[in-house]
């Protein structure tokens, strides 16, 4: 089964072709980072316009590099949500047009399910597993018993982990996109230089807003120049420590043997290292380019958990693809 995937949920215009959910035939991506850098964050209207300009070229490149002809495709997979409505609609309109023109089914894919499915590419991963889903908008611990069904055991009650990385990066003057810059700065710093709080919430839930405020208060009291590397390392250590501890707690309590990391923050080198060292489970994380938004994960998700959708389907902005456990907020 060969799927063409299209992804435009935020600031990456991406298209990829994947066979049987695991074999990557091609992957193309136009990153808008340079466009949004001057604003210090993603501007939705600017992002949507950029998608319009680049989407056709990205799709044509991905298809020609794959060597696959349109009539060989089993589906055109597209992220339907959650994400920015204006940007999602650009990818969805392109995918609908191709589905209609080539007479190939349109497959709707949930962005967060797709992040998890990035872990199937070039691996033999199978459910059951516990997924730590850490992106710019979401932080969740999800129990996957099957390819299609994820139950959210816990999640953040305020900021997402990626959001905390981005806000602290701005506070430290590191700029946008924040996560990779904190990761890099932290590599030269001492994680024990500052003691930041872990966010005291029950069960598998998280809270990062107090941590962000603690970094702000510390920065306000410190003389210039700021010890950027130590601050980045100490903040990163505080975020990652609680992510790792609660994920391992869920994996052990549910008695599964695999932990899967997904979403942009899964690219964080310290997070990966902490899991590798502390977990007794087998750890899966995609290559960095498959952690952040991409279309390979969308084409993979089409194979494992995508659903044929009608051509009048519309985009959604809030999460729909997973169930929430009663114990989660
Ligand atoms: O999954 P993603 O690409 O987009 C969303 O669906 O939100 O995640 C983006 C988030 C951003 O907050 C970004 O700062 C963070 O992932 N991120 C990282 C790293 N690379 C990306 N955070 C920490 N360390 C990284 N290396
Ligand atoms: Zn994403």
Task: State the share of residues found in helices, binned by percent.
Answer: 40-55%
DSSP, total strands: 12
| Uncertain stretches of 5 or more adjacent residues | none
Overall pLDDT metric? 96
What is the molecular shape? globular
Bound molecules: 5'-O-[(R)-(carboxyoxy)(hydroxy)phosphoryl]adenosine, zinc ion
Secondary-structure element order, as H and E?
EEEHHEHEHEEEHHHHEHEHHEE
Structure summary:
The chain is an alpha/beta fold. The protein has helices at residues 33-37, 44-66, 85-102, 111-117, 161-171, 178-186, 209-221, 228-254, 269-278, 288-291, 296-305, and strands at 2-7, 12-19, 23-31, 75-81, 106-110, 129-134, 139-144, 150-155, 258-262, 282-284, 307-308, 323-324.
Task: Please describe what this structure looks like.
This protein is of the alpha/beta class. Helices cover 42% and strands 20% of the residues. It has helices at residues 33-37, 44-66, 85-102, 111-117, 161-171, 178-186, 209-221, 228-254, 269-278, 288-291, 296-305; strands at residues 2-7, 12-19, 23-31, 75-81, 106-110, 129-134, 139-144, 150-155, 258-262, 282-284, 307-308, 323-324. The strands form two sheets. It has a six-stranded mixed beta sheet with strand order 3-2-1-4-5-11, sandwiched between helices. A six-stranded mixed beta sheet has the order 10-9-6-7-8-12, with helices on both faces. Helix 4 packs across helix 11 (296-305) and helix 5 packs parallel to helix 7 (209-221). 5'-O-[(R)-(carboxyoxy)(hydroxy)phosphoryl]adenosine (KG4) is lined by residues 10, 115, 135-137, 162, 165-166, 177-180, 183, 263-265, 267-268, 292-293.
